[in-house]
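Posted in: Protein Modeling Q&A

I'm a second-year student putting together a small comparison for a lab meeting, and my supervisor asked me to include a predicted structure for Glucanase. I've never done this before, so apologies if this is the wrong subforum. The sequence is pasted below exactly as I got it from our records. If anyone can share the structure token output, I'd also love a short note on what stands out.
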Amino acid sequence: MSGNRGTVMRHGLRALVAAFFALPLALAIAPSAHAADPTTMTNGFYADPDSSAKRWVAANSGDGRASAINVSIANTPMARWFGSWSGTIGTATGAYVGAADSRDKLPILVAYNIYNRDYCGGHSAGGAASPSAYATWIAQFAGGIANRPAVVILEPDSLGDYGCMTQAQIDEREGMLTGALAQFNRQAPNTWVYLDAGNPGWADPATMARRLHEAGLRQAHGFSLNVSNYFTTAENTAYGNRVNSELNARYGYTKPFVVDTSRNGNGSNGQWCNPSGRRIGTPTQLGGGAEMLLWIKTPGESDGNCGVGSGSSAGQFLPEAAYKMIYGY
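Accepted answer (user: helix_wrangler)
Welcome! Here is the predicted structure, written out as tokens:
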């Protein structure tokens, strides 16, 4: 009996090998970067235990706003942003995804360190010191994640921010993004990377489709919309579908997209920098009109020295802004 089983196994192995070599070469050696689904490798999304909202609640438990902020914001899974403030980046991303992995949760990370970041807007200016420094940084970012499941939003605003850039600067930026996607494909096979595509109020769908494609979207899992902005989920879904129509017509492919719903409960009033009267949106979840609805920007974190955040710096947690955003006033 055992000898017969061995014969069957050898024949089966021989057939498997023959079938593999009969595959078209491109299929046989195709990278598996997008084959894995990190949402099925985990049990829900990771709520950052060290978010700015969590830290504020812990330090201000006696504040009358603390309970509402804790319940409505601090315990909702949301992204952690990584940049020059993160220290040794591979260590930082590795520790974060490792903590999520130990809890069988899916972490959301934002890479926000591109050279000449926010070049035209200025409120979040900074980033890596050079394109080569960025290449090193993003390679270490991806290496820290390694084979653990993760979602990465790649460089918010980078493709909407062309108004004051020369063609050489645009080409340079697109090259940095393409190089970044290659690093994730090589080093982080269980990560879904979304190349940021701005929001419906920034570039028309045809323009954004071209920018995404030229920055390497084909290598990414998908694209992200509305990061740190306020447009409704319906507006973003309609825009994302139009971008996909343009991608399909021009380049022959489409991609999934995600929407930042952290602050879009009341929609946009046309202002992007700490506008008043905004409201938190649908908590992080799969589906909902897009592939995922995610809290990418922490509600209550300032957009910069502007609007209801006058006197603050970008990223600073403003408890009053967070509290009002829970109730929409």
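A couple of things worth pointing out for your meeting: Residues 1-33 have pLDDT under 50 and may be disordered. Residues 2-22 form the longest helix (21 residues).
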